[in-house]
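Researcher: Structure for this, please.
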Amino acid sequence: MGGCLASLACCLCPSPCACCCVCCPTSKSSTTTRLMYGLMLLVSTIISALFLTPKVAEGVLKSNTICSLFRKLFNLSTSANCASDDAIRKYFSNFAVYRIYFGAGCFFLLFMLIMYSVSTSKDPRAKIQNGFWLFKYLAVIAIIVGFFFVEAGTFENVIYVLAIIGGWLFIVIQLVLLIDFAHSWNESWVGKMEESDGHGWKCALLFFTFGMFVAAFTIFVLLLVFFTQSGGCSLNKAFIAVTFVYAFIATVVSILPKVQDATPTSGLLQSAVVFVYVMYLTWSAVSSEPYGPQQNCNVDFSGPANSTTNATHAAYSGNNTTSSVLGIVLAFALVLYACIFTASKSQLNKLKGKHDNDESERTVLCNSAGGGGDDDKKVYDNEEEGVVYSYSFFHFMCFLASLYLMLLMTGWTNPQSSTTSNIGKSFTQNWASVWVKMTSAWVCITLYLWTLVAPVVMPDREFH
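Model: Predicted structure, C-alpha cell format:
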C-alpha cells in the first residue's frame, strides 16, 4: 500500500515517474521523460484503434447504461436503439480518431510554446517537463473529451488540411535525417575499414550495400508485376518508372569523380539506403490507391488484382485491412523512434544546417553515466549542465507525429467520407496518401542529390 502511495506521490510531484518504480533500471531523466511522452502517443493509438474496432463498437453499443451515458453527456434527444442510432454510432468512427489525436497534438503544441528556450534542468519549466505526470495525463484527457463536444463539420475539414500539411512535414523531416543517417553510417564504416587491417568492415559494407540494392530492385520488379497491367495502369507505371530512374541517376551521380573529390565519404551505401527507402514509399503509395470497379491497379496477394467480382473485392478489402494494421504498428514504432531521437541537439543542428562542434551534449551524457552522487536513485538528472535534447522541438515533433498517426489511423480519409457507414472500415485508400508518399519519395531523392552536388557547385562553403 505504501509503495502505491509513493508511486502516486511521484506522479503528483515534479520528479520523474520512474523514480519510485523498484522494477525499473537506473536511467537518465531525459530518457524516461521522452518515453513517458511516447507513452501518451501509444495510449492515444490504442484507444483510437479500439474506437475503430467493429466488435468493440458493437459490444459497447449493446449496453443500455453506456447508451444512456452518451445521450446525457452529449445531449442527444434520440430514443432509437443504440446499435442503430447514428447520433451515437458516429462516436465509434473517424469522428473519434480526429478528436483523440488532435487533442493530444494540442497538448504537445502547448508544451512546445511553454518549453521554448529551456537550456538546463535548473530552469523551473524543466520540472514541468520531467514531472507532474498525473496532471499532464489528466490535461490530455480533458482536452480530448472537450473536443468530443465539438460538432462535426468545419472542425474536421480544418483538422484534415492541418494533418495533411503536418504529416507531410513530418515525413520530410524524417527524410532529412534519413539522408544524414546514411552519410554518417557510410563515413563511420569507411573510417573503421581504413583503420582496420582485416576485411571484416569491408565485407560488412559490401554486404549491406549489395543487399539493399537487391531489395530495391526486387521491390521494383514486384511493383511492375502486381501493380501494373499491360493495357492500363499508366499512372502506376509513371510512379514506378520515374522513382526508379530518378534514384538510379542519384546513384550514378554519387560515384562521379568530381563528387568523390568534393565529398570523399560519398558512396554507394548512402545511395542504397535512399534507393530502397524510396522504392518502399512507392510501394506504400500505389498500394494506397482506391479500389476501382472498372480497373483495379491495386493488388490482392491472394489472387489476381484485376478481378471485379464481389468476392475478390471482399478478399482485397480484408487483406488490405490486415496490411494496414501491420503498417500502422510499424509506422508507430518508427514515429516513436523519430520523436525521441530527432529532438536531440545534434540532430536539431543538422536540420538547421549547422555543424555541432559543441561537446556539451556528449559531456553531459558522459559525466552523468555514473550517476554521480545519485547512485541510489532510479532516475538521475543528467541535464544540470545543459539539456540533452530540445524540449520545444521534441514537442513539435510529437505534434507532427500526432497528425501523421491521425492520417494513418483514418486511412488518409477525408472527413466528408467519415460517416457512420464507415464504422469498422477506416483503413481505406485515399488519393491524398498516394500523392503525399510519392512527393515524399521524390523530395528524398532531390535532397540526397543536393548533398552530393552542393559541395561541387559551392566549393567555398563547408558542408557537414
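Researcher: Any notable elements?
Model: The mean pLDDT is 74. The longest strand covers residues 27-28.
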